[in-house]
Amino acid sequence: MPDKPHIAVHMKQIVKQFPGITANDHIDFRLLKGEIHSLLGENGAGKTTLMNILSGFYQPDEGDIYVNGNRVCFRYPGEALSLGIGMIHQHFRLVSQFTVAENIILGASNSVILNQSGINTKVRKLSNAYGLDIEPEVPLWKLSVGEQQRVEILKMLFRKIQILIMDEPTAVLTPGEVENLFKTIRLLRDSGCSVVFITHKLEEVVEVSDYITVLRRGKVMSTVHPTKIQKRSGIVKSELARMMVGREVILEIGKGPSKSGKPILKVENLAVKGDRGETALKAISFVLHEREILGILGVAGNGQTELVEALTGLRKAENGTIEVNLDQGLSEKTPMCYVPEDRLGKGTIPSMSISYNLVLTCIDKFSRGPLLMKKAILRWAEKVIEKFKITPPNPDLLSSQLSGGNLQKVILARELSQNPAILIAEQPTRGLDIGATEDVWKALINQRNQRSGVLLVSGDLREVLTLSDRVLVLFRGEIMDIISMEEEDRIGDIGPLMAGVRA
Predict the structure, then answer these.
(1) pLDDT at 376
(2) Which of 418, 465, 477 is nearest to 441 (CA)?
(3) What is the pLDDT at residue 251?
(4) How far apart (Å, rounded) are the C-alpha atoms in residues 265 and 411?
(5) Hey, which of 95, 406, 463, 467 has its CA 20 to 30 A from 430?
(6) The 478-484 sheet, strands edge to edge
(7) Strands 7-18 vs 21-32: parallel, antiparallel or unpaired
(8) pLDDT for 327-386, tens place per residue?
(9) DSSP 112-124
C-alpha cells in the first residue's frame, strides 16, 4: 500500500552493499512534508549513502522508495530532480569562471525559455524571498564559500525542488553564516519544503531539527524529537553521541593551562600570492611557542591555504621570513610535520596499503638504498595501527577502503609518530564524527603537552576555542587580531572578526 500523502518520502528496508561492507542494512526512513530531519552517525554509518540513493546517485540492492505515496526507482540524479529531490554535496558542483546566474541555470530544463534578463530577475526574486542576498551577475570566484553555498541552494530552488538534502552544510561557514543558513532552512520548511540535514555537529542538530535519525554501522538506532529528550545540562548532546558511537563521549576536552615556552616558529612580514596572482597574504607576522596550540581561524578562502603552503614549502613566498628555532632540548624531534586538509590528494595515496601510507613521509628510516625493509614496515604499521586504534586493523588494506575518520587517523598517526617539534594540522576534523573528533583532539593536546608547537588551521570556531591557547583570526589575507584564551572578555569578538568586523 502506498504511504499517506503527508509523508514526502518513505524508504523501506533499504540495503546497499559495497565490496566487504554493508553500508545500509535494511534501513527504514520517513521524511514528512515541511520538516527538517537530521541524519547523525559515525563516519561510515551510511548517512550519505542513504541520501545518495534517495537523490539517484546510487541504486539500492534491496528495498523500496515511495515519494508522495508513489513507488519510484531512480536510475540517475536527473530522475530524482524531476520529482523535486535535490542534494547539495560537501564539495560544491560549481564552475568558478561562470557567473552566479550561469551556474544556476547550467543543466536546468526550465531555463530554455528565459533570456538573460529574465533569468537574472528570477534569481533575484528567489534570492530575496529566502534571504540569500546574492547578485546573479557576479562571477563565482569572487564569492566566499558561504556565498557559494547560497548559489547551490538557489540552484535547487530554481529547479523547484521540494526535498532538499544538505551534506555537512556548515563545515566551512562562519557563525554568522551558519545562523543565516538556519534562517533559510526554516524558511524553506515553512514554505512546505522538506530538508534532510547531514551533520556531525550536535549543537546544530538540536537547534535546527524537527526530527533526528541516528545511524550506526548501517542500521537505524533511533529516530527522536530533540525536545523529547531532556535538554538540561547538555543531556541531549551526550545521549545523541552515545547512540552514534555506542559509548560515552567526552564532549568537552580539558587541555589544562597554557605553559608556553620559547618561540619555535617566527613568521615576519610574510606576503604570498594566490593561484590567480592576487595577494593572498598581506605581510603577516606571528610567533608560535613550544607547548602551545595556536589556532589559525577564518572562513575558507581568506589566506589559510596559502599560509600553510608557504610554511610547508609548497608555495613560494613573495616576501618575508619563516624561521624555525629548536633549542638543544628539541633537537631530537622532527622539525616540522604536516597534516593536510586533502586526505586523499595530499595526505595519502589511495591505491597503496595502510602500511605504506604510514611511512610515506619517513621512508628513509625504512629503506636501505633503493630497497624497502618490508618486514620492518609491516611491524611498524601493526604497532601504529594498534596504538591509534585504526580500523579495520589490517595493514594490507588499501587506504581508499577506509572511512574518513580512519583515514585521518592514518595521517595523524604517521605524523605524530615522528615526534614533531612543530605540527601543522589543517582542518584535522572536518567531516569527522564525534568519536573520531574526540580522538583527534586528544592527540593534538597530547602533542602540545610534549613541548611541541601546534598550528591548528580550522574554520570550526568551536574546535579552535576548545583547543587553542591563542587564536589568530585571518580575513582577506590580513591578521585581524591575535587573542589569548585567557582574555575571556574578548572571546566574543572572534566571530565578528572572522567576518572582517573589528570591535
Answers:
(1) 94
(2) 465
(3) 58
(4) 23
(5) 95
(6) 334-339, 420-426, 453-458, 292-297, 470-475, 478-484
(7) antiparallel
(8) 766 777 889 999 998 887 789 998 999 999 999 999 988 988 889 999 999 999 999 999
(9) TT--HHHHHHHHH
* Main-chain dihedrals φ then ψ at residue 355, nearest 5 degrees: -60, -45
Residue 426 — φ and ψ, nearest 5°?
-105, 115
Contact indicator for 477, 282 with CB cutoff of 8 Å: yes
Q: Which residues pair with 405 in a beta bridge?
A: none
pLDDT value of residue 228: 63
In the block, which residue shows the cell 504511504? 3
Sheet of strand 263-273: strand arrangement: 279-289, 263-273, 319-324
Amino acid at 481: D
Rounded to whole angstroms, how far apart are CA atoms 340 and 430?
A: 11
Count Cβ atoms below 10 Å from residue 70 Cβ, excluding itself: 10
- Give one word for 133, left, alpha or beta, with left for phi > 0 and alpha for psi -120 to 50: left
> Domains in the chain, please, with CATH?
263-498 (3.40.50.300)
What is the 8-class DSSP label of residue 191? T
Residue 4 has pLDDT above 80, yes or no: no
| Calpha distance 191→162 (Å, rounded) | 9
As given in the structure block, the three cell numbers for residue 167 are 551534506
Rounded distance between C-alpha atoms, residue 442 and residue 447, angstroms: 9
Residue pair 168/118 in contact by the 8 Å Cβ criterion = no
Distance (Å, whole) CA 432 – CA 427: 10
Q: Which of 37-46, 50-59, 191-200 has the highest mean pLDDT?
A: 50-59
Surface-to-core class of residue 369, CB atoms within 10 Å of its CB (0-12 exposed, 13-18 middle, 19+ buried) = exposed
pTM: 0.71
Tens-digit pLDDT profile for residues 81-124? 999 999 998 778 889 889 999 999 888 765 555 678 888 888 89
Question: 317: which residues sit within 8 A by CB, 6+ positions away?
Answer: 270, 271, 272, 310
Q: What is the pLDDT of residue 312?
A: 93
3-state secondary structure of 493: helix
- CA neighbor of 153 nearest in space, from 179, 174, 134, 172: 134
- The owner of cell 564552475 is 95
d(CA 17, CA 62): 9
Residue pointed to by grid coordinates 555537529: 201
Residue 194: closest CA among 33, 52, 85: 33
